Amino acid sequence: MTDHVADLEPMPTDWRRCLAVVAHPDDLEYGAAGAIAAWTAAGHEVHYLLVTRGEAGIDGMPPEQAERVREQEQRSSAAVVGVDEVEFLGYRDGVIEESLDLRRDLARAIRRHQPELLVTLNHHDTWGPGAWNTPDHQAVGRAVLAAAGDAGNRWVFPELVEEGFAPWNGVRWVAVAGSPFPSHAVDVGHTLDKAIASLAEHRAYIEGLGDHDPVEYASDLLRRFAAGTADRFGGRPAVSFELYSR
């Protein structure tokens, strides 16, 4: 007898603003962008905050060149799914720590944007059995979870109040993309093409992975991901999230 795998619930839609916080350019495009395209099409506000510029992500390109290329690729990618505002904190790629400085910077951004929904990438040790996650993803994801609370507590980083950023207790959910423990999903049947185009904008990064055509690579990967999630979401192609309620 096999264990029953629970169906995924629809993601909540009764919110206005979302702040998506990840470590690197392209982190949101490996799945979450399909959901983001659906949200922006429905009138929700979504902003991106990247902790690094991804300068260590292309082996054959020096970091000082890669950071310029990857920042532009991320801005172009975001525009495809209706996101106009992309910010970069400028932490060093590959060596992010779950530090108080990072938590403070994220709490500041949360207070400034005042989102009801936070989105981040998998903070768990693995993507699933046999697939180890990277330290940057783990550190940023965990810092986002901490900062969701920090943003509402005036006594954790009192200097933020002095800077003019009042506490924000309005974060209602944190949604973790790419989690091995998904609980919710978003139908991407009408936005999968946009998600593919969004990932394909990371041309230099994808070509650095090997002999790949960016569009074919993005299409094969995202269609496979969406089809895999459909088995737990009524047969509909979907993007999954692990959802934390606050």
Automatic annotation (TrEMBL):
UniProt keyword list: Zinc
InterPro entries recorded: GlcNAc_PI_deacetylase-related, LmbE-like_dom_sf
Keyword Transmembrane helix: no
Protein name: LmbE family N-acetylglucosaminyl deacetylase
GO biological process: glycoside metabolic process
GO molecular function, one term: hydrolase activity, acting on carbon-nitrogen (but not peptide) bonds, in linear amides
